[in-house]
Write a structure and sequence with these properties.
The complex is a heterodimer.
Chain A (H helix, E strand, L loop, with lengths): L8 H13 L2 H6 L6 E3 L1 H5 L4 E2 L6 E5 L4 E6 L2 E6 L11 E8 L11 H25 L13 E5 L8 E7 L4 E3 L9 E12 L2 H14 L3 H4 L8
Antiparallel strand pairs in A: 1-2, 1-7, 3-6, 4-5, 6-10, 7-8, 8-10, 9-10
Chain B lengths: L5 E5 L3 E5 L2 E2 L4 E9 L6 E7 L9 H9 L10 H9 L7 H5 L15 H12 L12 H9 L19 H11 L18 H4 L14 E7 L15 E16 L5 E9 L2 H5 L1 E2 L8 H8 L21 H10 L46 E5 L7 H7 L8 H4 L11 H4 L5 H9 L12 E6 L9 H8 L9 E2 H11 L3 E4 L5 E4 L32 E2 L8 E4 L7 E4 L13 H4 L5 E4 L4 H4 L3 E3 L9 H17 L2 E8 L9 E4 L4 E13 L4 E18 L2 E5 L11 H4 L7
Parallel strand pairs in B: 10-11, 11-14, 15-21, 17-19
Antiparallel strand pairs in B: 2-3, 2-6, 4-5, 4-22, 5-8, 6-7, 7-8, 9-12, 13-14, 16-20, 17-18, 20-23, 21-22, 22-23, 23-24
Classes of the chains: A alpha+beta, B alpha+beta.
Chain lengths: 226, 713
């Protein structure tokens, strides 16, 4: 692929090298990075969850905190800003996925058994995730907030980023007879805190992309406590 | 036909302090309502109380008990059950059940201390917003009120003088006062220890009535600049006290606390002045009279406590009391040119009566400015002086000299910002910057001449009686103000402000004339923008004309007999005639519509009756055409100020203002205008002449007549 990008020669060559020659994207997608779900309660009860199959889609949505009023001479936009002058509202993650094949039948043979165990793991992951979305918001033992965290790393955001917040709905799912062993599910998650902040991530990303830093070396290893 | 649509971007903001703690982050909405007149301004603060962050819980009470804040607190049998059944501990009932015993004490040294104390400690440690967490706002509020944090707290205040005869007997030996409780100058403690005054109950808010409140609004228009800093200006939006606390917990689990607050005149409503001598028991007086010569003068029920005072002395007396001196309690000299020191010196105004002040108003910061002959004392100067914009020098100019002199804030914070000033003042509602500010008075030139005390005298003597009479100071203050047709309002800095009505003025009287065509420049505190209701921010136009209140003739009669008991002049008053003010131009349409009214018991000359008839008719007719203007938030608007309503091409005087900010919702102001004047095509000195209904503007009034003139007493 000998494509060139419409940037200045230095930046363009860097990006060309990163993307087309060294393959930044492949460096980050070559290894599958499952999403990690946790909460204080689930961690204590050993229910931390590493997804067997990553979601089909994750929609990141962060509306602006703007309200409007009509005045005699036109429109008034009220911007409700934080102390840094930003009017960004809360980030919401809308996540859709499927269980994958959860057929538990063992058809015989070592390979099939292995598949069945994998199916079992996927089914178990679904159940754990469902339970996580139903957990109490107040930890009954500590009486403190039982906020969930999910740690995500994608090609777009090639660093592990942890979203802390709460589920705004219990996981919804559908049991479709047309797909007896693969069920779809969805949930939405309100992120109260993002660590590191997305702005930091995208700043770092820009530096990395432009300067040719090895993104893989910048990544922190994901830790799993579940 | 549609006009070109404009788009405005506004960025509202507010900061809210209660009991010196900033609670802005939890404020869902804040609204303030200001109006000229007797009614107190109010402020409503709606707070998120999620997870009881502003409410005492069982865990909090347990925590305080563990901390030794409450001694020997024994829970009764019923309370014990309630305690254990509270939502907080219900999941732990089983763990605690084994520790339950009758007569259970929650103190470590109680009868069953070892087990229960341990259980309580465990409970107390598990509250996210427990008072145990010293970083939480709840903890700061509670511990401050219990004096467990090192802060300067409220010093004694004066409660209403309600017949504390046992104290008066002792104090009278020194001062001869007819009422005197809670003497601030001696530091006498009359309200008890604050740590005892603030009670905390499981399930109730951590806030209490009389908690001081300060609210600040940010200028929402990003194009407006602070002339001192170049940044976005902030404004004082409210100063006062909590009055009501409403705690709501709806079925969806949303918890909200709504604080209803009233302005700093609140205390005046509860503080009484006794104008006659019946406070004393006659037999006690007789017994003491030979020992205390001063008491002799109280034997007459018609002693005049206002003798020797002028109008502003009277206002001063009602707020600050009569025990004023030319030096403040801190010992520094008072600028007598800027302070309403009663004229007779010494015991100030009255040699007969001593009346205590109210609250923490700062006498030495009081200002009286006359307007008229002296060009340096124009309305622009006044406006600049009493601006509601937060200024960098506020830490110095607002510091209460009664408490501890001027602040060293600026010296210790060389790079401070407006935000720092707000934090500093909002966090200190007791010592340097009590929400109760001072008194500001704007008078026509020469109105405050010597001995125009008849205004005060008449008000006090209306109540002369052989029985005990008690006047609440708020009503007395308003009576004094209304008596001469003045306006009273509470400035959001916390200052009681009294001005003559400014319905005959132009917005440009408050700003440099050269800003007429360019309102964007010049000092922001005297900016023409502050006096124009701009079209692009106005949400709707609401005007009403009704002839229900329209009158063409007003009759006012001097009151006969008011002089009785004041020197035997009543005979001179007999035969005074009623005075009529007539709006001739309106008679062909409306006919003779007569309204008769007298000022409340104090008009004794024909001239005064004439002036009053003019004022009263003008006020009455001004209500025939009224306007209520909802608009985008503008915290700069001011009560009793003439404004130009751009789209309506009318001048009006602001009578009411309300501001409401709902976070992530709306930010609105609503201005109610009175004394509306429109343009009929006449010009004066090259500018449009705005005229009221039925007559020209600028009808000269001689306030002197209402003040009774010189030497009438």
């Amino acid at each position: 692929m000998g494509s060139t990008l419409p940037f200045g020669s230095d930046v363009g060559s860097l990006l060309n090298r990163l993307i087309f020659q060294e393959g930044v994207s492949s460096a980050n997608t070559g290894k599958r990075i499952p999403i990690l779900w946790e909460s204080p309660l689930s961690r204590r009860e050993g229910r931390s969850l590493r997804m067997a199959i990553n979601p089909k889609t994750i929609q990141f949505q962060q509306p602006k905190r703007i309200s409007t009023r009509d005045a005699m001479a036109g429109k008034i936009y009220y911007h409700w800003t934080d102390e840094r002058g930003r009017d960004n509202d809360i980030l919401t993650l809308t996540i859709n996925g499927t269980t994958g094949n959860i057929d538990p039948r063992v058809l015989g043979g070592s390979g099939a058994k292995k598949d069945a165990l994998g199916n079992l793991a996927k089914h178990l992951a679904w159940a754990k995730l469902y339970q996580l979305t139903t957990d109490p918001i107040i930890d009954p033992l500590t009486n403190s907030l039982n906020l969930a965290t999910c740690t995500i790393q994608t090609v777009l955001i090639p660093f592990p980023i942890q979203f802390e917040g709460h589920f705004s709905s219990v996981m919804g799912f559908s049991d479709d007879a047309d797909n007896p062993f693969s069920k779809s599910w969805s949930l939405s998650f309100v992120a109260r805190d993002i660590n590191p902040p997305l702005n930091t991530i995208v700043s770092l990303l820009q530096v990395a992309l432009v300067t040719g830093l090895d993104l893989a070396k910048l990544q922190k290893p994901l830790s799993f406590t579940g | 036909m549609t006009r070109r649509q404009s788009i405005s971007h506004l960025i509202p903001g507010y900061r809210v302090f209660v009991y010196g703690q900033e609670i802005t982050q939890d404020v869902l909405s804040v609204s303030v309502n200001f109006a000229t007149g007797r009614n107190l301004d109010n402020c409503q603060i709606v707070l998120s109380n999620e997870r009881d962050r502003y409410k005492m819980t069982t865990a909090d009470i347990a925590s305080l008990a563990m901390d030794g804040s409450f001694k020997d607190v024994l829970l009764g049998e019923g309370e014990e059950i309630a305690f254990l059944a509270s939502s907080f501990v219900e999941d732990r009932v089983s763990a605690l059940a084994e520790n339950m015993r009758p007569g259970w004490s929650i103190t470590p040294d109680g009868p069953n201390a070892p087990s229960t104390a341990g259980a309580l400690g465990e409970i107390a440690a598990r509250s996210e917003f427990s008072v145990k967490d010293t970083k939480s706002l709840k903890s700061k509020i509670v511990l401050t009120k219990l004096q467990k944090l090192t802060v300067t707290t409220r010093t004694p205040v004066q409660p209403p003088a309600q017949g504390r005869t046992q104290d008066i007997k002792g104090q009278a030996k020194d001062t001869g006062r007819i009422q005197d409780v809670g003497e601030a100058s001696t530091g006498e403690q009359i309200i008890g220890n604050p740590s005892q005054a603030y009670e905390f109950f499981d399930g109730r808010s951590v806030f209490h009535a009389m908690d001081p409140v300060r609210v600040f609004f940010k200028e929402p228009d990003p194009d407006v600049r602070d002339p001192d800093t170049g940044g976005i200006p902030w404004y004082y939006a409210f100063a006062g006290f909590v009055s009501t606390i409403a705690d709501a917990h709806d079925p969806k689990g949303q918890k909200v606390i709504t604080l209803g607050c009233e302005d700093v005149r609140k205390n005046l409503r509860f503080s009484m002045i006794v104008p006659n001598v019946a406070l004393y028991d006659a037999k006690e007086l007789e017994a003491l009279a030979d020992k205390i010569p001063q008491l002799q003068q109280f034997t007459s029920p018609y002693s005049n406590p206002a003798a020797g005072m002028n109008f502003t002395d009277g206002l001063t007396m009602v707020i600050f009391g009569t025990r004023l001196s030319t030096t403040n309690p801190a010992g520094s000299a008072v600028d007598t040119t800027n302070v309403p020191v009663p004229k007779s010196g010494g015991n100030q105004g009255s040699t007969q009566v001593t009346i205590s002040g109210v609250g923490r108003f700062d006498y030495t910061r009081a200002k009286i400015q006359t307007f008229g002959k002296d060009p340096s004392n124009d309305l622009m100067t006044w406006q600049n002086t009493i601006t509601n914009r937060v200024r960098l020098d506020d830490p110095t100019t607002m510091a209460n000299t009664n408490i501890g002199g001027s602040s060293a804030f600026a010296a210790t914070n060389p790079n401070f910002t407006i935000d720092d000033v707000i934090t500093h003042i909002g966090s200190d509602p007791f010592a340097q910057y009590p929400v109760e500010g001072t008194l500001w008075v704007l008078l026509p030139d020469e109105a405050n001449f010597e001995k125009n005390n008849r205004v005060l005298t008449e008000e006090l003597n209306k109540y002369i009686d052989n029985n005990l009479k008690m006047l609440d100071r708020l009503n007395l203050l308003y009576a004094l103000v209304a008596r001469v047709g003045f306006e009273m309002y509470c400035h959001p800095k916390g200052n009681i402000t009294i001005e003559f009505p400014l319905y005959d003025f132009y917005p440009t009287d408050f700003v440099p004339k050269d800003l007429m065509s360019g309102p964007q420049s010049g000092p922001a505190s005297a900016n023409l923008r502050d006096f124009i209701l701009f079209d692009d921010r106005t949400e709707s136009v609401n005007t009403t004309f009704s002839d229900q209140n329209l009158r063409t003739v007003y009759l006012s009669t001097p009151v006969l007999g008011i002089e009785l008991g004041l020197g035997g002049k009543s005979g001179q008053d007999i035969g005074l005639r009623a005075q009529a003010e007539v709006l001739v131009p309106l008679i062909p349409i409306y006919g003779i519509r007569i309204e008769r009214g007298d000022m409340d018991g104090a008009l004794v000359t024909e001239e005064a009756a004439k002036v009053w008839a003019k004022i009263a008719l003008r006020r009455l007719n001004s209500n025939a055409f009224s306007a209520s203007v909802p608009m985008a938030l503008n915290p700069r608007y001011w009560l009793n100020r003439p404004v130009l309503w751009e789209s309506c091409n009318h001048l009006g005087t602001i009578q009411k203002i309300s501001h409401t900010i709902t976070w992530a919702g709306t930010a609105q102001s609503n201005v109610t205008l009175s004394y509306m004047r429109g343009w009929k095509g006449n010009m004066e000195n090259g500018r449009p002449l705005y005229e009221p209904i039925g007559g020209k503007q600028s009808t000269p009034l001689n306030y002197r007549d209402l003040f009774y003139g010189v030497g009438t007493v």
